[in-house]
Amino acid sequence: MKKSTSISATIINASTQSNKLFIVCPFCQMEHFIRKHFKNALFISAPAGILQIDTKEEAPLIKTHILQQKITDIYSICDTNCHFIQQAVTGKQQFMLNCEYHLSVYADASRDISTAGNKITALQIAAIAVQHQLYILNHTALFGAEIANKKITLHGIVSNKNQQTFYTIQKDGLPVRIPDFNRQFN
Questions:
Q1: Nearest-angstrom CA–CA distance, 37 and 49
Q2: pLDDT-above-90 percentage for the chain
Q3: Is 164 helix (H, G, I), strand (E, B) or coil?
Q4: Cα dihedral value 177, 182, 185, 186, nearest 10
Q5: pLDDT band of 69, cuts 50, 70, 90
Q6: What is the C-alpha separation between 184 and 107, in angstroms, rounded?
């Protein structure tokens, strides 16, 4: 595998052509898990799967890669067991990374609207993170034209790798469990 790196994202080129690109957290080690369901997948990794595509260094690199690889589907995927997601649930930040800040904002907002006594869950935080990533991708100048012209389709997935469970993120932001992941996306 050939790696090209920038400040916070790593693009990993697979040896075979694929038109599906997954945004994942490198610490969750989702690549093998995803390849079981999507053959020949390509990946962009960033902590907690939260890209900083507003930076001058990353945006051209990501766009060039996507256009060169003829990507038609971008999947933002977040695992509920992600260390950063778990930290957000407990209200902790260890490394002062950009993703930790975003996740803490999502967690705080969830706590504010949660009914009294209900704890926020990793599924809620992961769903908000994926939904926000999709919103950013959809409304940025980087991909806006390709998405509007239906050259690229965005997908949101929350997973629990340990339980082999997948949820799609619907337009309203609510996670919906997928009983048979292979049938749904292949």
A1: 19
A2: 21
A3: coil
A4: 180
A5: confident
A6: 29
In this predicted model, what pLDDT tens digit does every residue of 107-138 receive, in sequence order? Answer: 887 766 655 556 778 888 898 899 888 888 88
What are the phi and psi torsion angles at 35 (to 5°)? -65, -20
* Strands 20-24 and 42-45, sheet pairing: parallel
In degrees to the nearest 10, what's the CA dihedral of 96, 98, 101, 107? Answer: -120
Q: How many CB atoms lie within 10 A of CB 153?
A: 13
- How far from 38 is each of 45, 165, 175, 186, CA to CA, in Å? 17, 15, 20, 7
| Count of C-beta atoms within a 10 Å radius of residue 52 | 18
CA 179 to chain centre: 20
Strand partners of residue 85: none
Kindly tell me if the per-residue pLDDT of 32 is higher than 60.
yes
H/E run at residue 66 = helix 58-68
Q: What angle do CA 23, 134, 173 make, to 5 degrees?
A: 120
Q: What is the pLDDT of residue 175?
A: 60
Two tokens, residue 74: 């971008």
CA distance 120 to 104: 12
